[in-house]
């Protein structure tokens, strides 16, 4: 097991990856919304409705805050939370990207 001191570079790398994936999620979501799509995540859809474009700032701030909290909580549950957050955020971006690619392919056929 790595000590916190030894694990910090890895923790910060994963933290940066999570935040960058959150930014990619915002960009790809906006692309989809701009082309007639809609948000399927009810809490985010509600946030969008309540706050307008500020949803992006709020989502990013919450992601950064939770990521920093996970870094500070270097224990077994923090490690699990990091892995889950990284894979979930990555899966969301992957799904958004697939939707965009499919939309581009289908729109070329029209």
Description:
This protein is elongated. It has four helices and no strands. The protein has helices spanning 4-34, 42-51, 55-72, 76-108. It is mainly alpha-helical.
What is the β-strand count? 0
Distance linking N and C termini: 56 Å
Class computed from helices, strands and strand pairing: mainly alpha
Low-confidence runs (pLDDT<50, min 5 residues)? none
Order of helices and strands: HHHH
Mean pLDDT: 90
Strand content: under 5%
In angstroms, what is the radius of gyration? 16 Å
Q: How many DSSP helices?
A: 4
Major sheet, described briefly?
Answer: none
Give the proportion of residues in helices. Answer: over 70%
| Shape estimate | elongated
Describe this structure in a few short sentences.
This protein has 110 residues and is mainly alpha-helical.
List the topology elements.
Elements (H helix, E strand, L loop, with lengths): L3 H31 L7 H10 L3 H18 L3 H33 L2
Features:
single chain; 110 residues; mainly alpha; 4 helices; 0% strand; elongated
């Amino acid at each position: 097991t790595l000590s916190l001191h030894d694990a910090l570079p890895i923790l910060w790398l994963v933290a940066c990856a999570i935040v960058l994936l959150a930014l990619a999620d915002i960009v790809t979501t906006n692309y989809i919304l701009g082309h007639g799509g809609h948000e399927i995540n009810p809490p985010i859809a509600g946030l969008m409705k309540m706050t307008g474009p500020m949803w992006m700032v709020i989502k990013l701030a919450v992601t950064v805050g939770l990521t920093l909290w996970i870094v500070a909580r270097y224990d077994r549950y923090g490690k699990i939370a990091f892995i889950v957050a990284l894979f979930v955020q990555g899966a969301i971006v992957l799904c958004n990207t697939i939707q965009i690619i499919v939309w581009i392919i289908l729109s070329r056929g029209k």
